[in-house]
Hints:
alpha+beta; Immunoglobulin-like; 32 strands; globular; EC 3.1.3.2
Amino acid sequence: MVWFWVLVLFTANLKLGLAHIHGGEQPLAKINILQTTVALHESASISAEPVLLGLKGEDTEWITVNFGNPKPSLDDWVGVFSPAKFDPSACPPVNERKKQLPYICSAPIKYKYANESSSSYAKTGTASLRFQLINQRADFSFALFSGGLSDPILVAISNPISFTNPKAPLYPRLAQGKSWNEMTVTWTSGYDIDEAVPFVEWGRKGDLQVRSPAGTLTFKQNSMCGSPASTVGWRDPGFIHTSFLKDLWPNFVYMYRIGHLLYNGSVVWSKTYSFKSSPYPGQNSLQRVVIFGDMGKAERDGSNEYSDYQPGSLNTTDQLIRDLDNIDIVFHIGDLTYSNGYISQWDQFTAQVEPIASTVPYMIASGNHERDWPNSGSFYDTPDSGGECGVPAETMFYYPAENKAKFWYSTDYGLFHFCIADSEHDWREGSEQYRFIEQCLASVDRHRQPWLIFSAHRVLGYSSNDWYSQEGAYEEPMGRDGLQKLWQKYKVDIAFYGHVHNYERSCPIYQNQCVNKEKNHYSGTVNGTIHVVVGGAGSHLSKFSQLIPYWSIYRDYDFGFVKLTAFNQSSLLFEYKKSRDGKVYDSFTISRDYKDVLACVHDGCEPTTLAS
């Protein structure tokens, strides 16, 4: 009987901790595309230009769409479809008894309301819209609908348009390999291995270039765990290639470009990019790290944005691009795209972050919107991934985990050692991941790498968000139960979390007690861990509790990110910046020596003996 009530309380806590996740809806999910009826009208028209895109090698183009409807209404809308041709034969029946096939069985990749650019559309029936398209390995068409999103009526279909080479290699994203002197390059193309051989040509700036081969992966519709990813949200992801650039010299600028060797002997090339290799672990130099969660994606042409699903995403992206010369590595700690089963959005996201990810390592963590799906092995039995169950995230990005399905790993960058946990799998004491976390924290040489950082998507530490405050513990249920003794034993400096869409910093804390009264400068012994929620990079914001806990030093209901600057082995600067202006709104410094890390603290002392 006792175990029954334990289970009931555990389930209730999980549900309470998850109550916030429905605060926003993927805009494409609002379209009831399977219920589309066809009423093509001879007097209705829609056309798009230019017809051929990327004539100068561009992977992004602006399109003008002109349309007219003899029976206009305020809920008319224009959808962008890719591939351009609707194929009802590939659709599953909507009504099994009648075997009725829908006319369209895949969602558009984006849409706008017809009256967005013309307030007089409902009277005149004519208007034009501007869309920005990226190369997504297939042609495009535009469709004019009446009936709104819930009861779409197809009235006109445009001419198809296409990029000159839809299969071109695009959207490179760098990541640290399993050793400090290895960089990985991952990209997307339309070339399978029976069409072309993928590789990266690279070398130090000004030196001879070498070529490294790449492996090729993809995933299929039957790899998805449920709808919409396996139904209306499915879109072929193309082929994802990863090359490993090894034995890099520390601190050098390397040039690289992506190639596909066709079997006729010609090569299809990408643009030329560059990156700076990582410093040697322990190297005493200026090192700058950016950390945030829950950014999502947004459309620069305003598509899908009526719902304000990720209103801060572009501001964060653009601030990082502007400051890119002063950033060495980026950590995006979960909830990457918020595609929620609409696979086309992964291309949109990789295109959005390409200026960042092609230049500095873009390290990721797994969030509920990447992984969670009922009966799929995720710790939380929720449908947050939209049926993706981790497959796109695990394939589209590289991260140095031993098992890609177990999204935990460690990585080094100069003076920093990072332990990245996976909050969507069991982290509790006795679990496989708990053993990894302890091994990761224990393995660092604090003389060489004094700055020890822990990170997970969900708040396993402290947050005064409103739903956590209702639960009473100010954390993800069971979050810090077993982990806090590891943070204390191994003297973790800072723990970062996303999931909660705001910013909050705690005091250095252990067992709910602030262990340092300072707020802006910390020095000497590491008595406790500072916990930081930095989940306000783009998605709709989360409210705080009205009560401010004693341990909460700074809270901000706005979009932003954190930047860490290690000046050397003894000095660290922490800055919280708002995405809208890039200015610093919260900061602190840490100054200490190696002996301060070694010093004995409560529940963090090495064994001693009285023997001489």
